[in-house]
Amino acid sequence: EFELEGRHPSPYKFDTNGYWSDVLKRQFTFSKSNATCNHYVMIRINAAHNQKALTLDAIRMDADDWVFGCSQTRIVKNTKVCDQGDNLSGLSGIIPSNGKRKSVHLDLHKLKAEKGYTHIVVHTPVHTEDTKVNIDIYDPKERALTYQVPKWITFWRKFIILGNTAP
Q: In what order do the strands lie in the sheet with 101-107?
């Protein structure tokens, strides 16, 4: 039997001496090839704006523990860091592709309200080769598409062809 308990340890202690960067854009892609130190990308949760959802798409991410929620940051050597985070990697799923690919969809407002997170942290471990992560922060309402179908298209309506059958 497959055991999920303890698979994604939480809280997770970060390397504050690693390379830390803040992402301020709503759409962003970062790549790491031959990482020589732990690399952390912090995505700020901004509850006041229409940035309600976050989708992360990680390509060739070998690490099982790669996405975290952070509720407290501090400054180390003029850089904002997070000492530890709650492991959110268990929420991610594997996407079929030619290489290892993972994706996670997070409700940022819910995570801020329920868990008190201020940032989402994406971790690329040392010695990781050729990893790419796509970051997309958006309002789900912006992605909803409605379309008025022409009246002549009637295939979804229920039509009675014969009211009664002949005896």
A: 27-32, 131-138, 53-59, 101-107, 93-94
